[in-house]
Design a protein that fits this description.
The protein has about 500 residues and is of the alpha+beta class. The protein has helices spanning about 5-10, 15-20, 35-45, 55-60, 75-85, 85-90, 250-255, 295, 310-320, 365-370, 390-395, and strands at about 70, 70-75, 100-110, 115-130, 135, 140-145, 165-170, 180-190, 200-215, 220-225, 245-250, 275, 305-310, 330-335, 355-360, 380-385, 400-410, 420-430, 440-450, 455-460, 470-480, 485-495.
Length: about 500
């Protein structure tokens, strides 16, 4: 006779209920889990086979009414899609994508508090994109059949749009905020903003990890991240030992009275921008969570790595000293209290959520990317521009949008052999949001567009300033390529 655990694995949750003498719920699918997963993903493949749905409701048609993923509900996504004029373009890379290598991780049948039943299956799969890239790390989903009654929203309240039907739907990862780690390699070609002349050296390289905590539901005030290599010595130098960082919400950096005029006080942070690591000026603006002083010293970055080196080999050595290793886990604790106001204030507080994120991929080998020189490296490189560097710098200083026809070369073969595709083209500028000449408060604006993933040119306007910008001090144009496995390879043209 099969053990109950083995029967559960072999037969699936709904079939197990019948085998054990229970009555199956007609609102719960009894398909074998793998068959259910394949059928659902085939439906999604068909949805995006020739075009991406043009409305939020159509794009989310295969998601449950109580869907929650990284803090975004179904209602939030539908509204954002329908109100953002760039939303449809940002999804065009999905057109023609297919899902393969499907596997079932878990299959469970439970009763909700109201007596209804739900069946959930956790699945993984690869996503194959028409541009040649392939996602093999992000395709984990939970599908639901039956009732989603009792599902919680980011604020802890019950979802009021539960569905109860046998159709399989995405239910999301149920996180109330987004947490992840993304690896960056960057090529920076630098220009003096005041003159348009090149900085010396004109091309440098960076590689770093970005720790993302994003709160679209606006339920958190700060967070901590604990990892195997986030420690600092007493001078603020990262030393590759275990440690914890403290991050403050950008909503507080923008709006809280305590943060006005402090580092990171951009007046136009978006609610969805990532939290920033709190600083300590006595430790060179780098400090562990127990000495970081958010309300005094603010926070301006969430990156951890090595920057602005003209030598790829030296950059690799510097980054290696930080002791990042793929496969290691980082713990994110999310808080919604006032522990950010005092040094080590989180020690006496209880987090509202705790999540674990795995470092999937490191930044790529910088020496390989740098190749034989700045005119032969493996980054995408600009090949033509309708305006000179001097004209662009002048437009940024004058806060005047400028139309650019840009063309660039495709990236070379990546060191890990994974294909990359264009993710976005972005213009960014920042500066003082005051007339007194002090750094803070400041203003920032990013304007991103999404050409087709195989594009090598674009024509568009750049550098429409934020309304609060008084004195521009920085601008950039960036080309971002991705292998769709949490690696971004960016070519950035800076005016500084």
């Amino acid at each position: 006779m099969l053990s109950s655990a083995l029967k559960y694995s072999v037969m699936g949750a709904a079939a197990l209920l019948v085998a054990c003498g229970g009555d199956s719920d007609p609102a719960v699918s009894q398909l074998p889990a793998l068959d259910a997963a394949k059928a659902y993903l085939a439906k999604y493949d068909a949805l995006v086979a020739t075009s991406f749905p043009a409305t939020g409701a159509a794009a989310m048609a295969l998601h449950d009414g109580c869907y929650l993923n990284h803090g975004m509900t179904k209602a939030y996504i539908v509204n954002d899609f329908d109100t953002d004029p760039k939303a449809l373009a940002s999804q065009q890379y999905n057109i023609g994508s297919t899902r393969t290598n499907i596997a079932v991780l878990a299959d469970r049948l439970t009763k909700n508090a109201d007596g209804s039943e739900r069946r959930e299956i956790d699945i993984t799969y690869d996503v194959n994109f028409k541009d040649g890239s392939k996602n093999v790390v992000g395709g984990k989903e939970t599908l639901i059949s039956g009732s989603s009654s009792g599902s919680k929203l980011p604020d802890g309240k019950d979802c009021t749009t539960a569905e109860n039907k046998p159709d399989w739907r995405r239910i999301g990862n149920r996180q109330i905020v987004e947490t992840n780690l993304t690896a960056f390699n960057e090529r920076l070609e630098r220009t003096v903003l005041a003159t348009g002349a090149p900085v010396s050296p004109s091309v440098v390289y960076s590689k770093y990890m970005q720790f993302v905590v994003s709160d679209p539901a606006k339920v958190a005030t700060y967070a901590t991240i604990t990892g195997p290599n986030l420690g600092f010595d007493a001078t603020g130098k990262a030393n590759g030992t275990p440690g914890t960082l403290k991050l403050i919400s950008v909503r507080l950096l923008r709006d809280a009275p305590e943060m006005q005029g402090k580092p990171g006080n951009y007046v136009d942070w978006r609610d969805t921008d990532g939290f920033r690591v709190c600083q300590n000026t006595a430790r060179n603006n780098h400090a562990p969570a127990d000495v970081a002083d958010c309300s005094k010293d603010g926070g301006t970055s969430a990156n951890f790595g090595s920057y602005n080196n003209a030598s790829g080999a030296q950059l690799d050595m510097s980054f290696a000293a930080l002791n990042f290793k793929a496969g290691e886990n980082y713990t994110f604790k999310i808080y919604n209290d006032d522990g950010w106001k005092t040094v080590n204030g989180q020690a006496a507080k209880t987090p509202i959520a705790t999540y674990t994120a795995t470092l999937v991929n490191l930044p790529l080998n910088a020496a390989d990317l740098a190749g034989t020189g700045v005119n032969a490296d493996k980054f995408a490189r600009g090949t033509s521009s309708s305006k000179t560097s001097g004209e662009i710098a002048s437009a940024i200083r004058a806060k005047t949008p400028i139309s650019l026809d840009l063309a660039w070369s495709l990236p070379g073969a990546m060191p890990d052999s994974r294909p990359v595709a264009l993710s976005y083209v972005s213009g960014y500028q920042s500066g003082q949001a005051n007339s007194t000449g002090v750094t803070w408060p400041a203003s920032r604006k990013s304007d991103t567009t999404y050409p087709v993933p195989t594009a090598t040119s674009t024509s568009r306007s750049f550098f429409t300033p934020a309304s609060a910008l008084v004195n521009p001090t920085y601008g950039e144009v960036s080309l971002a390529y991705t292998n769709r496995n949490r690696n971004l390879i960016r070519s950035i043209y800076t005016f500084q």
